[in-house]
Specification:
- It is a single chain.
- The chain has 304 residues and is of the alpha/beta class.
- It has a single domain, classed as Rossmann fold, CATH 3.40.50.300.
- It is 33% helix and 22% strand.
- Strands 6-7-8-3-9-10 form a 6-stranded mixed β-sheet, with helices on both faces.
- α5 crosses α6.
- It binds adenosine-5'-diphosphate.
- Adenosine-5'-diphosphate binds next to α3 and β10.
- The site of adenosine-5'-diphosphate (ADP) has 13 residues, from α3 and β10.
Amino acid sequence: MTDIDRDPQTADEKAGGATPFRGMGETASMDPAQAQAPEVTETVREVIFDVKELQVTYPNASAPAVDKISFEMGKNEITALIGPSGCGKSTMLRCLNRMNDLIVGTNVTGQILYHGEDLYGPNVDAVQVRKRIGMVFQKPNPFPKSIYENIAFGPRIIGMEGDMDQIVETALRRGALWDEVKDRLKDNAFGMSGGQQQRLCIARCLAVAPDVILMDEPCSALDPISTGKIEDLMIELKQDYSIVIVTHNMQQAARISDKTAFFVVSLDENDNRTGTVVEFDDTEKIFTNPADERTEAYVTGKMG
Ligand code: ADP
């Protein structure tokens, strides 16, 4: 059985105790001698995704959409993917939960290790992968069902145990939506505002207890107040989840992310476009002291 197939709790117990869902900062029981030891403040960064030389070529394309992509994404971090349109950010994001598998004929080479395990390995079930690695899209896409049923749908499909009312309430609370909708759970989700619908989609994703949340421009269709609520929510959620976000909003990347990967497109001799990562670093460094002049031009708005 692969790490991905395992029950999340079992996998986390094996990984050393704290679950990716909750309990960050919990300490395993210690003997009294250790309890006297000075507090160790240094934390070790745990890698969730290790991308090595990733190349993705869509069917019938003359050149790869992305090539030579290598960087690591950490646990309980928000990683932002930024760069001009068409440089492969969404392609990269979709590789992280094997959504590109759904485009028949897409060729993915290189390697993505998820918790150290080959995400594209022969024994890995892509459906299981998508259960552990959820995705929220640019445009809120609730099901044409009640608010309650939107949340209950996923847990029912995967046969999640427990009281469904409780599962729904917990997911809506985690999605910062409960107080706004608790009295109208039977109403159709389409009656909610755009921002509420997007938080519902996030709550729907959380309901199946994922490990990672991928977000593809989740605020681009929202007004500034709704955007602020989603950003606050993301910062809260990173305590328990790891988040990778594609955003065109530089301020957003700077405000919420810990690490940033900057993508550009380069042209080959036949003008075929291929995206690659120019620079990956702490977000603060990318925005204040980037190593590459193309990054600086982009984050300061000199290159679009
Ligand atoms: P970004 O998210 O940075 O805007 P994308 O990953 O959407 O970039 O696109 C990168 C390149 O891959 C573009 O040239 C785009 O046309 C191409 N592409 C994206 N999705 C598909 C697809 N489903 N089939 C074929 N080509 C695609």
